[in-house]
Structure formats: C-alpha cells, structure tokens
User: What shape does this take?
Amino acid sequence: MRKDYVNVGQCRVSITHTSCMYVGVGNGIDVCVCARRRRTMPVASAPPYPDRVVVQQVGQARSVPDDSPPTYEDSANPNSMPPTYESLYGEFRQVEDPRGLAQFLAKAFAVIISTMTAAVLLAILNIIPLGMIVLGSNNLYSCPVEPYIPIWLIVTGFFSLLKSATNFCYRARRQREGRPPSAADVNPNPFDGLLSCFLLVWFIIGSVWVYSVYDDVQYSSSRDSNYCDQFTYIFSFVFVTLGYVLLACTLCCFCCCCCCICCRPKKQHAGGAV
Assistant: This one.
C-alpha cells in the first residue's frame, strides 16, 4: 500500500505537510503543530501581444475597385486625374443638410476652377470685359438717354479684369510655394471678396440704369435726347438679363437640392419603418 505519512520526531505527519513541531502532551495526547504544504498550480502565461496582426483570408483573392470619392488634395493636384461624375455624385450623397450642400458646392467650384480647362475658359471669358471697356470708351457720349451706361460698361470691364488678374497672381504664387488651395479656402485671396461685393452692387446699379430706359430708348436720331447707340444698349441689356437668368437658375438649383436633402431622411425613416 502507498504510504501517505511519515514520522517526524514523535509525530506521525501526512505527506501533505512540510514541517511539524512537537509541542507536548495534553490530556494524554501528543500534540504536534504542522504546516500544510501549499500546492502551486501551474499558471498558463498569456501569449505575447503581437506587434502586428496579420489577417489571412481563405479563398481566392479578388481585387475590389475603390469607389470612394477622391480627396480634395488629389482633385486639386494638377498631375492627378480630374474627378469623375461618380465621385462627385458619391460626395453629394453624403451631404446631410443645406450647410453641407453649400460646402460641397464651394469645394466642387474650387476643384473646377483649379483645372487647366477652367483656366483656359476664364482666359477666353476675359474677352468680354475687354469688349465692355472698348465698347464703353468708343460710345462714351453716344447714349444721352442714360449717360451712365457707357461708364457702367467701362467700370464693370475694368474691375472684372482686375479680379481675374488678382486671382491668377495669387494662385500662381501659391503654386510656386507648393501650397495647393484647401477645401475650406475657396477664395483665399482677401481682395477677391471686396471685388466680388463691389461688382455685385455695381451690377444691380447698372441693371437699374439699363431697364429704366427700356421703353424710351430709340436708335434712329443721334440728336434726340432718347438716343443710345444700338449695339451699346443691346449689349448692356443682354448682359444684365443673362446675369439675372444665371443667378435665378443657380438659386433654383440650390433650393431644389436643399429640398431633396431635407426630404431624404424622412423617406429613409419611412422606408425603415415599413
């Protein structure tokens, strides 16, 4: 049989004890004080935390095209590809409120004007301000029905060219410094805002001058007080009218987009409830 005790002095000690001390006799019984052996259980150590977690996918790997919209820095980079319709539409779908819509439109406008095509188009459109200056200068005294119309053409053309020149110089300086325009900096030129406000106010004033003499102007007799050079007045009238048409179309599109954005969460909520 297995012996599960040992004799320590005058005491019979179980093998589960490590040390015993004989105390004496009490009531005819030998008394021994023993210390029980403490069993130590092996503790499994935690595996070391890996520096990198490597995930392996079982199966055939497939390349999934990245449909996420490009960042603004990639779009503003002249060496990168221009943003596609799908990327712009993807960013538009992420807009949640009218404020986000305004930021998206400002960002899209900044991306568009930073392209080479937009630069060429803006250079071509500078012909219109030049034509306004030439037309107003040649007919400065040929519109007695409203003498301020030729002056309005000259001032509008001059400040439009000044606005384009300041923006071009500012953009060229930023590119030389290696600082592309940021998404929050659509009009980084501080002077551009003042020129835009002035041109807007001046445009409204000019429209008042042009429309106020629409029923009185005549092109036959240059000595008549209601005379105005036909091409000068028609050009001014068409320019002002197209400006208001473009402004109305822009506001209409913006309002429609705001309505779509505001109604979209309600539709999604209703669809989820069903």
Residues 230-273 form the longest helix (44 residues). The chain has two domains: 5-36, 72-273. The chain is about 55% helix and 10% strand. Residues 72-273 form one domain.
